[in-house]
Give the backbone structure.
Amino acid sequence: MFNLYLCNISHFTVRNLSSTLQQKLETMEIIMQPWPWYVGGPIVGFIMLILMYLGKSFGFSSNFRTLCSALGAGESCEFFRFDWKTQRWNLLFLVGAIAGGYVASHWLSDNQVPQIAQTTIEQLHAEGFASAGSSYYPAEIFDHLSPKNIVLLVIGGLLIGFGTRYAGGCTSGHAISGLSNLQWPSLVAVVGFFIGGLIMVHLIFPLIF
């Protein structure tokens, strides 16, 4: 009788554990799948509401200025002369974004390359980018650091670093934070982002590659 009792308890426990494990696996499956815009969008908006409530402005590229100030650039340049410690929360956000991306790519996803339009893949293949559609980044640039590629990467980095600070923000600072505060300069900047992208794709890109 006692053995039967233990057997029933064991069966009940195993069944509950199996059910719990199945539920956790289903939850993990939801987390590991790409989130649609109607899920990710409201989450970003909710984060903005929290930052606005705390009196903070969301912007990723501002960490460039913060890091330069923390390293002593304020001693020789007025632009970097401010209390960078007030932006420690943003530096923490930067670290969290990097760590979160690493965790998500290694343990919370199957690491599939995002799908892009077949027409785009064919156009990139015609331009000599055979890795298009099968790689996260153009391997022809980053895996083969020829003098030309190094020059392009350095110039691109300088333009991004200078441009985001000269414009007062990047896509996150203007498109997310600025537009949510109905800032006219942010609207102008966002329109400029799109115009610059079109010019790059249709005019400059064919000349470079």
